[in-house]
Amino acid sequence: MAADETTPLLPNGTTEDNSRQSSLPSRSSNNTDTDNTTSDDHHHVNKEKQWSLNPLTLLTRLHVETRILLAAFLITTSFSFTQVPIFYVFYLMECDDFYTRHPPYAGSGDRCSRNEIAAGTATDFSFLAMSTTICGTVNLFFAGWLVKKIGPRLALMAQVLVPAIRVLTQILGVLAGGRSGIVIFQATQLITVLGGPVGYILIINIIVGEVVSPARRTPVFGMLQGCFMLGQAVGYLTGGMIGDAWGIRRPFEVAFVAFLISTAYVQLALPYVRPESMAGGKKAGSKDKGVAAGFFAPLKVLAPQRVRLRSGKEIKHFGVVILCTGVFLGVLATDFAAMLIQMYATAVFGFHQSDNGWLMSEFALMRAVFLILLFPRIISSGRKWYAKRQSKRQPRRDSISDERDPATQGLLIRPEQLEAPMGTCAEEEPMVTQPPTETEDTHFDLFFLRWSLVVDGLLTSCAALATEKWHIYLAAAMLPFASGTAPAAKGVMTEMCSPSQRADALNALTLVENIGRLATQGFFGFVFAALAEVGKPHLTFYCNAILAMIAASVLIFSRFPPTGSELIEADDAEEHVDGST
């Protein structure tokens, strides 16, 4: 009989019977071997059960989104341990420096409660923030370049480990005190070039953009921002309490240990993604444009896009340019809110380190609650509402469905739609799922972005009416409910650009936010100092509110590319030119 694919490997014939009979004399020995094998198998099963209870195994079994969000929480907590103590240290060092140039304090009450000291603290802290942001801008380019070279996980480990060295050097500034301590603190910010908060936030957002499905991207960006805020809430509160209980130096020591723990967690829990497998990674056969070109590649995203319409006509699209302009103005208006409330409470209501710790913890905790619990539901419900609203206003786009190939309906056929596997980069087969509706969804994200700035401006203006301490706590609880601007902007930005530019797009948007953060800390820091000199620091809130309204007005002119159009990338244009020549 001819053998085929259904023929068993061990035939049921005389061969089996003969082998069975030949084995009868040695049954006892075989029983012994069977018993040993059974015991070995039982021991192997016990080892598997013990291994299944290993914390590392349990950690890696969590969903990739959960592991990324937990990493964001741990790292942000490590950074936030010293934020409240740093401001209070500057307040004390400025007070000491003030009385080295003035007669000793002879009155009753807090000797540091003077308008000159509040203004000096605001000025010196603004310089610190500006130097941090300038170094963070360089770190932003360095982190984006490092991701393309060694991958996001190793790059994130570097961004977390380097700040541990900075924390150790800041202890010297605490011990020095006075003007010398202020100078030491400002000098240690140079370490931020190699690793800092800007770089790690960028890399975590890049990881989300690579491993999260398109439909989940904007909600996860919001939850990620919420985990940042939750980490800040825990770090602000515990940092201030640790400083009050065990001295101002202790929060810096705790932060050092927390950075080491976070570095180990990143290595053990986050997924590994090779640089070549990323959407913006180097393609096979592509030319290496050099270190400088890769270092400043995000700047190309900020240029006007070239779009090919259905008719074949090529036009320039300014949606990304206007979006980045509006985001810059929005950051300029809103990013100083947390620091403004802290400075206002310290100068007007006499808040101390623990008070500021509770205040900033409340502010960050409310932002975390909004972004983790409410923001995803707002985006999900808003997309459905916006889709129904658009379907009533304009006819159904039958031409779009006609252009789709029925054979590919429901298939994930693009690389960015596939989740990055854990510990390997083997290719995956396309899997059947619901077809994504990215364009309709992200239209609401842009709508939400505009109105979020309007609400933020209204709430900020109300904070200027505070006349009691509990008014400050109420303002810190209400302002976070308009904090969905940053994640919504990231979701819109990633959809306005091509998949191959996603990492550079997030890098470019982070750069715009960083420049806006630098401008707001310098500009509104000096504005607050000037208004504090004349006894009217509350007017700074109105300046923030007006600027937020201007940012919302600018975003009205930001649009997605026309329906049915195609983005023309720079590499495609160069290949077209080379082919024509």
UniProtKB/TrEMBL annotation:
Q: Which SUPFAM superfamilies match?
A: MFS general substrate transporter
Region (Disordered) residue ranges read: 1-46
Q: Give the record's membrane topology.
A: Multi-pass membrane protein
Low complexity: compositionally biased ranges: 20-37
Keyword terms, alphabetized: Membrane, Transmembrane, Transmembrane helix
Subcellular location as annotated: Membrane
Q: Which Pfam families match?
A: MFS_1 (PF07690)
Superkingdom field: Eukaryota
| PANTHER family, per the entry | MFS GENERAL SUBSTRATE TRANSPORTER, ZGC:174356
Write the protein's name: Major facilitator superfamily domain-containing protein
Coiled coil (residue ranges): none
Q: Which residues cross the membrane?
A: 68-91, 125-147, 154-176, 182-208, 220-242, 254-273, 318-345, 357-379, 472-493, 514-532, 538-557
